[in-house]
């Protein structure tokens, strides 16, 4: 069996906010995400579930991307803000096994480190708005771990 996991680093965000948590997407970031949503559709990637950090920029990213996936269940999680790969792994392991395809929207450096560990390769630094789709060779989301997947596609 296999599962499919998409990982999206939030879109480009501005720096003119009181706190990092409240940073919003720039116009350029929004535009790139709209194009990325079209690319995901053409790539035949259709998540059943979208999980996202609760930071402003990731929520805005999720809103733009999820427009193309009206049937996806969308949830926001405070603990994914500045999450390391262990927290990301923990959150993914909680997903119901009935779900086959998931998109996670998060932040660097945790999301990049997570991809590198799952694909068991050197560190791959994801830029804002970049998506990596992994095929995971697991039957249960709780089995996600080092070397359990391969990179199927990278979208910049």
Automatic annotation (TrEMBL):
Pfam family for this entry, one: His_Phos_1
What the entry lists under CDD domains is as follows: HP_PGM_like (cd07067)
Q: Which domain of life is it from?
A: Bacteria
Protein's name according to its UniProt entry: Histidine phosphatase family protein
Q: Which organism is it from?
A: Belliella filtrata
């Amino acid at each position: 069996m296999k599962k499919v996991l998409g990982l999206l680093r939030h879109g480009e965000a501005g720096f003119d906010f009181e706190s990092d948590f409240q940073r919003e997407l720039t116009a350029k970031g929004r535009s790139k995400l709209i194009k990325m949503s079209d690319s995901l559709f053409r790539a035949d990637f259709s998540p059943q579930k979208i999980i996202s950090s609760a930071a402003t920029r990731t929520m805005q990213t999720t809103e733009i991307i999820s427009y193309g996936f009206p049937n996806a269940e969308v949830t926001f999680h405070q603990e994914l803000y500045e999450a390391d790969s262990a927290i990301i792994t923990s959150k993914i392991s909680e997903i119901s096994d009935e779900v086959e395809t998931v998109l996670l929207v998060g932040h660097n450096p945790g999301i990049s480190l997570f991809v590198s560990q799952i694909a068991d390769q050197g560190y791959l630094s994801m830029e804002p708005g970049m998506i990596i789709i992994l095929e995971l060779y697991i039957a249960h989301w709780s089995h996600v771990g080092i070397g359990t997947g391969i990179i199927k596609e990278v979208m910049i």
